[in-house]
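Worked example 2:
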Amino acid sequence: MVSEIPQYCLRAYALFYSRHGSREPFMQSELDWIVGQSMRKKTFALLLKSGWIVKERRNSYKCVDPVKVMKGLLEFKVPELMKEASRPYAFTNLSAVEIWSDYSYIQRGIERSPYFIKILREDIRYWKEFFNKRDIPNYIRQGSTVGEFIILIPVSRLHSEKKGTIKVEPLKETIKTARNNEMYSYAYNYMKDKYGPAAA
């Protein structure tokens, strides 16, 4: 999984790639005369963790191809990351419509990929830290950015059902959301046909 890196890491990656491309290995010692030992270790640790370089052997590394890095930055990561969450949540609004309709309605593209998630008010700090630690932009109630981002909707009570490995707003509430918006008529009909009386 590729994630964003600080500017000093980006400059180091640019240096390594301009000298070695993505096929030729290099060593940490290339930064010896530029930065101190602790900064060098920090830079390499972040580049490895963020998926911009890979370890070749014990002391050598290779750059990941920049095309793969750029594509990796825009991959959909959130559904998989939610498996690591320990607090209650429920995908809601259009995200719930997506999930319950088996993605017959899709609201996202690589350029803009919002997720709407209900959380308990007392858990706001937990969720901010959860997504910040994983470099996923997140906002309370509204916001937008390029790629994946989270809209957190704090509530006092939370109801969810499991669909696969994901916790989602209950089907009946999702059906109501889809029924009340013409734009989601295809998803509404799909859910009505699939779930029958449960969708009423």
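The mean pLDDT is 88. The first helix runs from residue 7 to 20.
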